[in-house]
Write a structure and sequence with these properties.
Number of helices: 12
Distance between the termini: 14 Å
Strand content: under 5%
Length: 322
């Protein structure tokens, strides 16, 4: 099993490198002009925005490994950003206190999903779809469609902990990826998540607290989505109810491309981060190609279908050899 997933992560890296090489070749400039894609500034831009959604993709991957699915991260990102921005701009709370309130908002959304899935026994799809609507609707009610100017309240050249703002989100994403990769592979809780996703009944008879594991993954996923929302509000300098609209697909797709099986029981935190970078490169490069600006959604949808079909074929093949 470990060998298989090392190969899957390696193949994800290969896909990312091939994608970079393709766009480098396709967008090669004429004469001595600076390359519009292959330059340090653009690489940092890709990393900055990919990392914001990469933080949420870590949580999405964990939920998928457990055998569930979470459709609410985009809405939680928006709501957490709105809550933090509103307290910071209108109530004049400190940035740290505002950010903490935004994270607690994510915890509350995660608890709501956990109760609906574990206690009420709703299917995860329905439960998180409802939470998505509640979170997004609450964000619009609180803002009444207005945007909250966060940038105006930040000091010029502000550097959190002395780190340039552009590097903050990538550093947080890498740190969280390392922490949760270790938790998922080296600790009992992570092994329980894989066990529940692989066979919930067998995990229950093995002494795993299935309800606790399922509840914990939804709370963690929503908390990470809230962290993404705060990072997005700071980077974009505003809190808005329509931020991250439709990014549920991108976040889930990143986890799936990185190796998470929608059947549960298999997946990788590192793979989810790599999947986020793949879509980040795609979204950055396509607008630079004439006529290709609006193809990103089409490509994301096709990639998800292809990956899921391949995953099902591999699963059937392995079952046939058991």
């Amino acid at each position: 099993m470990k060998k298989f997933w090392h190969i899957r992560e390696f193949s994800t890296v290969i896909i990312l490198l091939l994608e970079i090489l393709f766009f480098t070749w396709w967008l090669w400039p004429e004469g001595s002009r600076t390359h519009p894609f292959l330059n340090a500034g653009n690489a940092l831009l890709i990393l900055k925005y990919s990392s914001i959604y990469g933080i949420a993709a870590i949580g999405a991957a964990i939920v998928i490994v457990s055998g569930g699915v979470d459709l609410s991260p985009g809405a939680v990102i928006a709501l957490a950003g709105v809550i933090a921005a509103g307290l910071f701009v209108e109530r004049h709370w400190s940035l740290a206190a505002s950010g903490a309130a935004g994270i607690l908002t994510g915890v509350a959304c995660g608890l709501m999903s956990a109760i609906l899935v574990v206690v009420v026994r709703l299917p995860p799809f329905i439960a998180t779809l409802g939470v998505m609507g509640i979170a997004r609707g609450t964000a619009f009610i609180l803002t009444e469609g207005r945007y909250l100017d966060v940038s105006g309240g930040l000091p010029p050249g502000w550097r959190p902990f002395g780190v340039p703002l552009e590097w903050t989100s990538p550093i947080v994403m890498v740190a969280l990826a390392i922490v949760f990769q270790v938790l998922m592979t080296r600790f009992q809780w992570g092994r329980a998540v894989f066990a529940v996703g692989g066979n919930e009944t067998a995990a229950l008879f093995s002494g795993v607290s299935v309800g606790f594991v399922q509840a914990s993954v939804y709370v963690i996923a929503a908390t990470l989505a809230a962290m993404s929302g705060i990072a997005l509000a700071i980077v974009q300098g505003q809190g808005k109810a329509d931020l991250a609209m439709g990014y549920e697909l991108d976040i889930i797709a990143s986890a799936v491309v990185g190796g998470a099986s929608l059947a549960g029981g298999r997946g990788s935190v590192v793979g989810a981060v790599l999947g986020t970078l793949i879509f980040g490169v795609l979204r950055n490069a396509l607008p630079q190609i004439p006529g290709a600006t609006f193809y990103d959604r089409l490509i994301v949808g096709l990639v998800v279908i292809v990956i899921v079909v391949m995953d099902q074929l591999l699963l059937r093949r392995r079952r046939a050899h058991v």
